[in-house]
């Protein structure tokens, strides 16, 4: 698991390779990632937008931006958490994802919460010695 805290908001990510949805012979590899967003602060916050940077093992980058997560813009009161699961395909057997959430505080202030970079690993990755 990967975890990072920004301004009392802790984001924890657990990626899982989905063998049954992947087809290595077709260069199609799929991961699910479970995210928990926990408000450890004193004020309620609302997740407004997401940003993802997805990089495959060949260095190709895909950026994803959008409102909320999984169709929701959750409001987290102090001590509350929100969990969701999503996924991503890659044309390579490994990669890395990182990103951020744009949060809105009680006075309408917008701030960025870092999503820790996490590794997308599969058993199909061929190790290359230096």
UniProtKB/TrEMBL annotation:
Residue ranges constituting the ApaG domain according to the UniProt record: 3-127
Q: What InterPro entries does the record point to?
A: ApaG_domain, ApaG_sf, Uncharacterised_ApaG
Where is the region Disordered?
80-99
Q: Pfam families per the record? A: DUF525 (PF04379)
State the superkingdom: Bacteria
User: What PROSITE patterns does the record tag this protein with?
Assistant: APAG
HAMAP family according to UniProt: ApaG
- Can you say what this protein is called? Protein ApaG
Organism for this UniProt entry: Kiloniella laminariae
Question: What lineage, starting at the top, does this entry show?
Answer: Bacteria, Pseudomonadati, Pseudomonadota, Alphaproteobacteria, Rhodospirillales
